[in-house]
Amino acid sequence: FQEEGSKKYYKLIMDKLELLVKELGLKFPMLHENPDFEDILDEFTSMVKEFKSKLVLLFSMSIFGTIGVFRRYIPFPSGMISLCRAIIGTCFLLGFIFLKGNKPDFTAIKKNLKLLIPAGIMLGFNWILLFEAYQYTEVSTATLCYYMEPVFFILAAAIVLKEKLTVKSFLCVITALIGMGLVSGFDLLSL
């Protein structure tokens, strides 16, 4: 009787686990292939960790996606917002580093200071322009233009650094520019 009850309990657990896995939309092939409960529990634990990481990514992207909307209602200049964003980000990163038990590598910072300072200035300038774009155009258009940055770097590298523009890169640039034109409302048929 006890063995029969254990089988029913095991089947009930497996059915609930399979239902949960289906609701989460995850793939879990071990449910029927391997009856070893420890293997199933290990697989399920790794799936939960993967699901958690996807939730964290979704949360962080949701936060980043609301920057433009919030920017419209913040009455401060874009330079001040960029400075505050940099200070808050620095505090969070340093806090994270110290919580992990690490310390900043000051020798590496000193070694790369000639690159870090211009990169920081360019990043700040980038944020100021992005926040100004949110003020003067639609959030969606400003965000799409912001993500066109790699296209402009490809073109600038070909012009300034004399890098070879491959056919694949050229087709990607043209496709991105056409897509940007379509999204921004440019009428291609009027050409």
Characterise the protein shown here.
With 191 residues, this protein is mainly α. It has 10 helices and no strands. It has helices spanning 2-24, 30-33, 37-65, 67-72, 78-99, 106-111, 113-136, 139-146, 149-160, 167-184. Helix 5 crosses helix 7 and helix 7 (113-136) runs antiparallel to helix 8. The protein is extended and about 70 Å long. It starts with a helix and ends in a 7-residue tail after the last helix. The relative contact order is 0.05.
Brief summary of the model shown:
Helix content is 80%, strand content 0%.
| Helix amount | over 70%
Per DSSP, the total helix count is 10
The description of the largest β-sheet is: none
Strand count: 0
Mean pLDDT: 80
The span between the termini is 82 Å
Give the overall silhouette: extended
What integer value in Å does the Rg equal? Answer: 26 Å
What percent of residues are in strands? under 5%
Order of helices and strands: HHHHHHHHHH
Main attributes?
mainly alpha
List the helices and strands and how they pair.
Elements: H1 2-24, H2 30-33, H3 37-65, H4 67-72, H5 78-99, H6 106-111, H7 113-136, H8 139-146, H9 149-160, H10 167-184
Helix pairs in contact: 5-7, 7-8
